[in-house]
């Protein structure tokens, strides 16, 4: 399977499956001397982790990050950084009834058609859980950009379906489950969620120098 490694100067290779022992990534190209601890990464993982609101999967995972290599005495060494997140709440038996069938709208069929095999337990590598490793790697990159260039990255939802979300301030982003930079329209978004419609969302990313 291709596509597990991305980047050029700062490369990230992710590994692991939704219902395996764990998942993580290898970061290559991070310069030496960057102060880095688990807590620098954990904050972003806590924002992403499942079970934090009724709008996301109710799987309960601590998503506790472990730094296995590439950091010595609190600073990066310039060698590959290995990050690991152990799975603790995978309930594979819940997927037994789809072992011989494909879920509509999921990557089950396309994965099987392309590779001749699939992991039906939560989708394996096709699970959204794989993004946890990317979030961890992004936290490292984000810290380096801030310390080296003073660059801060901010992302927020600007539109859900046809509903545009007005920008009211970045301070609202972490205060609602939709990551919207808005407080007054949250009730409208809750109503859209209640309709259980398949709606397209748009997100805006900003870099401040």
TrEMBL record:
Reduced FMN (FMNH(2)). It catalyses: 5-O-(1-carboxyvinyl)-3-phosphoshikimate = chorismate + phosphate. It is an enzyme of class 4 (lyase). Its EC number is 4.2.3.5. Pathway: Metabolic intermediate biosynthesis; chorismate biosynthesis; chorismate from D-erythrose 4-phosphate and phosphoenolpyruvate: step 7/7. GO terms for cellular component: cytosol. PROSITE patterns: CHORISMATE_SYNTHASE_1, CHORISMATE_SYNTHASE_2. Its cofactor is FMNH2. One of its GO terms (biological process) is chorismate biosynthetic process. Keywords: Amino-acid biosynthesis, Aromatic amino acid biosynthesis, Lyase. This is Chorismate synthase.
């Amino acid at each position: 399977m291709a596509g597990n490694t991305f980047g050029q100067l700062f490369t990230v290779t992710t590994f692991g499956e939704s219902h395996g022992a764990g998942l993580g990534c290898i970061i290559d190209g991070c310069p030496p001397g960057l102060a880095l601890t688990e807590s620098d990464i954990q904050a972003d993982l806590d924002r992403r982790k499942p079970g934090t609101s009724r709008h996301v999967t109710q799987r309960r995972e601590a998503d506790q990050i472990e730094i296995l290599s590439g950091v010595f005495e609190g600073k990066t060494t310039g060698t590959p950084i290995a990050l690991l997140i152990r799975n603790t709440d995978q309930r594979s038996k819940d997927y037994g009834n789809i072992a011989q069938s494909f879920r509509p709208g999921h990557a089950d069929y396309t994965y099987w058609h392309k590779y001749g095999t699939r992991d039906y337990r939560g989708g394996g590598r096709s699970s959204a859980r794989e993004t946890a490793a990317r979030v961890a790697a992004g936290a490292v990159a984000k810290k380096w950009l801030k310390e080296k260039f003073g660059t801060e990255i901010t992302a927020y939802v600007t539109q859900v379906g046809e509903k545009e979300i007005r920008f009211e301030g970045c301070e609202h982003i972490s205060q609602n489950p939709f990551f919207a930079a808005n407080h007054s329209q949250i009730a409208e978004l809750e109503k859209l969620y209640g309709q259980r419609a398949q709606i397209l969302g748009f997100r805006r990313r900003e870099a401040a120098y």
